[in-house]
Each structure stands twice: as C-alpha cells, then as structure tokens.
Amino acid sequence: xxxxxxxxxxxxxxxxxxxxxxxxxxxxxxxxxxxxxxxxxxxxxxxxxxxxxxxxxxxxxxxxxxxxxxxxxxxxxxxxxxxxxxxxxxxxxxxxxxxxxxxxxxxxxxxxxxxxxxxxxxxxxxxxxxxxxxxxxxxxxxxxxxxxxxxxxxxxxxxxxxxxxxxxxxxxxxxxxxxxxxxxxxxxxxxxxxxxxxxxxxxxxxxxxxxxxxxxxxxxxxxxxxxxxxxxxxxxxxxxxxxxxxxxxxxxxxxxxxxxxx
Length: 262
Fold this sequence. Notes:
single chain; mainly beta; Elongation Factor Tu (Ef-tu), domain 3; Rossmann fold; 7-stranded antiparallel beta sheet; 7-stranded mixed beta sheet; globular
C-alpha cells in the first residue's frame, strides 16, 4: 500500500453533476481542486451531508479529471446521508474533507494487473485502472454484481480488458469474480474491492498464494482520522484503523475471521 498520509484538505465543493445510473446507484461529481490534485487511487473523502446525518459519509474517490480539479464519487443510497447526497444538484455546495487514508501501491515493475470488483467495490478501482493505463500497464477488470442493475461499461476507461459477471446470469458470465483468478497467472499484482465474503474466498484461494494482493476494506467509520478507533481491525501486525492505516491492506495480513461486515 501507499504509505504517504498527508493532512486532509477541506474544500467547499460545488456539485457539477449528479446522475442516477441505476436504481439507488449514483455518480456524483464535485469541483474540489485541492483534494483532486492530492488524491491517490484507493484513498477516500469524508462528505458532510448538511444535517441529514450527524457524521460525515466516507466515499471512495472514484476518479479525477485530467486537470485534477474534479472529483467523482460512486455510491449507493443506504441511509439519510447518502439519500441527501443523491438529491444534490449542479450548483449545490458540499463540505468535503480529503484525501484520506492509504491507497493502493502500484509497483513500478508491474506490467499486468488484475482488478476484482464486487458490486460497489468498483468505485475505487476505476481510479486505479486509469492510473495503471497511463503507465502503460495491461489492466484486466473483473466486475460482478448480483443482477443486471450495474455500472454502464461505456463509462469505464478505454483500453482495459473487461470480464463481466452476475450472480443470476442476467448479464455476462454467471458466477463470481473470484472464479477468474486462475485465468490470469501473469498478473504481477491483484487488487480487489468488494464484500467481506469475497475477501474470505480470496484468502483461501490457491491462486492468491505467494502473490501481491491488495484489498480495500469497507467498514463503519466515525471520525475518518484514526482518532476514535471505531474502525479498528485485527491484522498479523497488530490492531489497525481502516481509516488511517487503510483502507487498503495486503490480503494475507488481515485476520479475516475477526472482521465483521459493515
């Protein structure tokens, strides 16, 4: 993982676009040049929801524009805070704090990578895919959802190889993204974001052994600064705060049996 943690920047960010992609899935873009210029793939931001929720809402940085002035967030409506965010429109202002946490570590020696996105886990991996493609790295993205209610593939970066899955077989291949792990033996690194059962499967999978595998964890967060210890997890190197030491961890360092789903 990237180990550089700078002090987060607070921007009063103006909404430039807020689109509903599918039922309950939104793509929000804001003008936040300070945060965008400092952001790295895998980091997140904390968004204030204007009184609809007491705590800020942590959202992975989905992508930034070429000029590094605009931030995009991909999120699902899961409560009062994200409900308020889903109703914002162009011109509205949002208090955004970021970038936060440790992001992905893309090795200079990597020539091919595999990205495993389970559901909303696609959110931070698009930013990583864009960075890898700029570096000339071959990017394979396996994207899986429960049904065909999913992110439009036309919005993905051009140049990557996409393998699509659905649990019910209504789009792409029927099955789970972890089923493609044996198909990419030449991938120098594997990056994943998705639900907890996906990580547990990966941790036991023979094709992740002795390989560079990084995962982005989703847990409940309060402060986002590592102060309240509300997002503490067990790792082989001791207790860690997801918001401060993560959200990206190496797969084999997390004690998966002690992780609780958010």
